């Protein structure tokens, strides 16, 4: 994929596979679906995920939408309601406090795709969520 550091370098639709290892519940949840990164404006990327989560014989649809906005020379991932989530940083850990819990995330990009890992810890959460994005289609230039 060459040197990729900006969210605009990842435009297109990706196959998404996610594993959630929930240590508090003592269970694993799997998600299979797609993640689409679309250019909304030169300074905004919409990051939409849709899929199906399965665990313990159950299956439910899941989805979320985030935005990645350019702020000066930096990019920020934001929730769909506009709240800041974390800075867009590739290859370095970021933190997001959430109530009494802390989420530590890492975005890594390789030749075949990209991964996002979140470790949630605290009194309410104890899990590791790893998402792999592969097999990009509908890729568009970031121009």
Descriptors for this entry?
mainly beta, single chain, ten-stranded antiparallel beta sheet, 143 residues, 0% helix
Order of helices and strands: EEEEEEEEEE
Number of helices: 0
Decide which structural class fits the backbone: mainly beta
Biggest pleated-sheet summary: 10 strands, antiparallel
What's the gyration radius in Å? 15 Å
Content of β-strand = over 45%
For the biggest β-sheet, the strand order reads 6-5-4-3-2-1-10-9-8-7
Ends: how far apart? 16 Å
Net shape: globular
As residue ranges, the low-confidence spans are none
How much helicity do the residues have? under 10%
Number of strands: 10
Name the average pLDDT: 93
Explain what this protein looks like in three dimensions.
The protein is mainly β and 143 residues long. The chain is 0% helix and 68% strand. It contains no helices and 10 strands. The protein has strands spanning 12-22, 27-41, 44-55, 58-71, 74-79, 84-87, 94-98, 101-109, 113-121, 126-137. The chain has a 10-stranded antiparallel β-sheet with strand order 6-5-4-3-2-1-10-9-8-7, with no helix packed on it. The mean pLDDT is 93.
Summary?
The chain is mainly beta and 143 residues long. It contains no helices and 10 strands. A 10-stranded antiparallel β-sheet has the order 6-5-4-3-2-1-10-9-8-7, with no helix packed on it.
């Amino acid at each position: 994929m060459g040197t990729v550091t900006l969210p605009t370098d990842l435009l297109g639709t990706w196959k998404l596979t996610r594993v959630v290892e929930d240590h508090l519940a003592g269970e694993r949840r799997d998600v299979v679906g797609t993640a689409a990164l679309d250019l909304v404006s030169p300074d905004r990327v919409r990051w939409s995920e849709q899929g199906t989560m399965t665990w313990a014989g159950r299956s439910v649809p899941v989805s979320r939408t985030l935005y990645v906005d350019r702020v000066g020379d930096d990019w920020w991932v934001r929730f769909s309601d506009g709240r800041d989530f974390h800075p867009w940083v590739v290859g370095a850990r970021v933190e997001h406090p959430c109530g009494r819990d802390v989420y530590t995330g890492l975005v890594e990009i390789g030749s075949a795709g990209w991964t996002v890992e979140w470790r949630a810890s605290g009194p309410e959460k104890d899990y590791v969520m790893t998402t792999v994005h592969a097999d990009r289609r509908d890729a568009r230039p970031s121009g």
